[in-house]
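Much of the work behind modern protein science is quiet bookkeeping, done one molecule at a time. The fold becomes a row of whole numbers, each drawn from a learned catalogue of backbone shapes. The protein below has been through that process, and both of its lines are reproduced in full.
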Amino acid sequence: MAIKPDADSRTAEQKKILNRLRRAQGQLTAVIAAVEGGGNCRDVVTQLAAVSSALDKAGFVIVSTAMRQCLENPDNENSLTVPELERLFLTLA
């Protein structure tokens, strides 16, 4: 799926997505370090939940961006159908 709204909007959306993914990456690195170092189970699970939440939010931003693009430009060759968008959305649930 290509995320290609206008240049300014694309840049803003990409920044949001990348920030969320980088946050998740940093949290996952902390989880790995905690597991390798024999970290406290409660802390590891809490951090792992934060990773999962950050990834879910990034996924929702990606799907919502695709939905917006499909509404704005339904004839674009990269547009998704409603069933495709629904499937993407449900994969995050």
Summary: The two ends are 19 Å apart (CA to CA). Helices lie at 7-36, 41-72, 82-91.
